[in-house]
């Protein structure tokens, strides 16, 4: 930063923000707590501008959270033509350790201002905080919350069904995690409710619950299949239907009905969100990621919403540090060792691990790289870590280039590199997925 810089660090909160203005090199000029209101933000900016004019300094604001509680701050300050930068929370955390004081809002704001003074030219401007990015992030997190609710409800439904149907309920449908099965159990929560129904009558009910059509069959074939399924259900529950229904059955029926209703609601909500993401919200870079093995609409939305602008990472190595797939170096006494990086974007790290798991299971290229890591004596976990790092490199390259993942080009690059390695044994080997991450660039020169 320039020698005459007035850095204003702001720690945003829901009701009140904490601001600290620091003049280069480290002179605290202003400390203020302001309400989360437009007039208070404008009053702070007026006072800061007066200080800057008095000391002939340039004003630069720094925010950690410019998308949620800091959104109003960003809008007001940018409307006034101020420069607002985004500060990485990891840097402010290290700066707070330097001060060595107890954690409070004033120290947080001062640490943000100190980071602005020392890293100002390398800090990105808070210009990517638009409504679409925030909406994409909220949609992705809502999908994840819905998935967790779905898992809890399914586990509880399995428990309740096993208490009334024993183990027979698992034979009723090929997939119990579907709306057809949930509607059936909401209609028939315990075996005694099936009494009085014949196979053709139950088959007609099944057709109604399925929405009128079952599978890519003709009408007659569907009718026969449904009657066979109805006969199988009635036969499996024959002895259970002979038992008298009690108040416990009615209580469990209420629980099963509520769980089935909750599952149907979650299924519908997830479908609407995914449809909206696919049609409108997910930008073009996210669609490029969906060409990769194991990357669907939800995972692509997670990656894009957590990254924001990929250009803020100068290299794939910086991106790997941010998402936690690059290990942290620990050196002492001339010895260097590597450990898992704890300071990272954990949502993005989880996405990279899910990509790696899917790639190892379904992509022969990633599986070959994983097997070579295992052959070198690495454990399964360590091998998977290396696959996750390669997936990080591929994601970085795809987002930077704007081109979708092209498997044919990757395979051609691998064959070409294998031929070169066979002709020149001294070159050494290059991991397969490394080539996938470099497919849009010319090969590195031979050392």
Automatic annotation (TrEMBL):
Residues 8-164 form the Transposase IS110-like N-terminal domain. Residues 129-156 form a coiled coil. Residues 288-370 form the Transposase IS116/IS110/IS902 C-terminal domain. Keywords: Coiled coil. The keyword Coiled coil applies. One of its GO terms (biological process) is DNA transposition. Residues 413-447 are annotated as: Disordered. PANTHER family: PUTATIVE TRANSPOSASE FOR IS117-RELATED, TRANSPOSASE FOR INSERTION SEQUENCE ELEMENT IS1111A. This is IS110 family transposase. It comes from Caldinitratiruptor microaerophilus. The lineage of its organism: Bacteria, Bacillati, Bacillota, Clostridia, Eubacteriales.
């Amino acid at each position: 930063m320039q020698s005459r810089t007035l850095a204003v660090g702001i720690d945003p909160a829901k009701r009140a923000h904490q601001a600290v203005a620091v003049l280069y090199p480290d002179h605290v000029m202003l400390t203020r707590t302001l309400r989360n209101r437009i007039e208070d933000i404008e009053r702070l900016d007026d006072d800061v501008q007066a200080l800057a004019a008095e000391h002939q300094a340039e004003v630069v604001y720094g925010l950690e959270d410019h998308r949620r509680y800091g959104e109003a701050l960003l809008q007001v300050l940018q409307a006034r033509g101020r420069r607002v930068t985004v500060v990485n929370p990891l840097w402010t955390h290290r700066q707070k350790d330097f001060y060595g004081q107890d954690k409070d809002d004033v120290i947080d704001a001062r640490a943000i201002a100190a980071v602005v003074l020392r890293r100002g030219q390398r800090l990105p401007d808070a210009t990517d905080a638009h409504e679409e990015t925030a909406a994409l992030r909220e949609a992705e997190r809502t999908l994840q919350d819905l998935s967790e609710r779905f898992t809890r409800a399914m586990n509880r439904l399995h428990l309740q069904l096993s208490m009334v149907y024993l183990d027979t309920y698992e034979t009723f449908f090929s997939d119990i995690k579907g709306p057809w099965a949930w509607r059936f159990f909401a209609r028939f929560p315990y075996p005694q409710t099936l009494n009085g129904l014949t196979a053709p009558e139950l088959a007609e009910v099944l057709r109604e619950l399925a929405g009128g059509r079952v599978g890519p069959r003709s009408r007659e074939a569907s009718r026969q299949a449904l009657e066979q399924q109805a006969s199988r259900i009635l036969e499996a529950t024959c002895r259970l239907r002979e038992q008298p229904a009690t108040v416990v059955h009615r209580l469990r029926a209420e629980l099963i009905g509520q769980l089935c209703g909750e599952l149907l609601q979650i299924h519908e909500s997830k479908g609407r969100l995914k449809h909206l993401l696919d049609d409108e919200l997910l930008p073009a870079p996210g669609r490029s990621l969906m060409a990769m093995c194991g990357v669907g609409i939800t995972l692509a939305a997670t990656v894009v919403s957590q990254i924001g602008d990929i250009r803020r990472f100068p290299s794939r190595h910086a991106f790997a540090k941010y998402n936690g797939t690059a290990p942290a170096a620990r050196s002492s006494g001339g010895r260097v060792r590597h450990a898992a990086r704890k300071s990272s974007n954990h949502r993005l790290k989880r996405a990279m691990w899910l990509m790696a798991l899917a790639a190892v299971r379904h992509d022969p290229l990633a599986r070959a790289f994983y097997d070579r890591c295992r052959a070198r004596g690495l454990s399964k976990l360590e091998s998977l870590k290396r696959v996750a790092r390669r997936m990080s490199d591929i994601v970085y390259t795809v987002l930077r280039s704007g081109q979708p993942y092209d498997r044919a080009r990757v395979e051609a690059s691998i064959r070409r590199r294998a031929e070169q390695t066979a002709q020149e044994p001294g070159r050494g080997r290059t991991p397969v997925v490394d080539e996938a991450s470099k497919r849009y660039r010319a090969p590195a020169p031979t050392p």
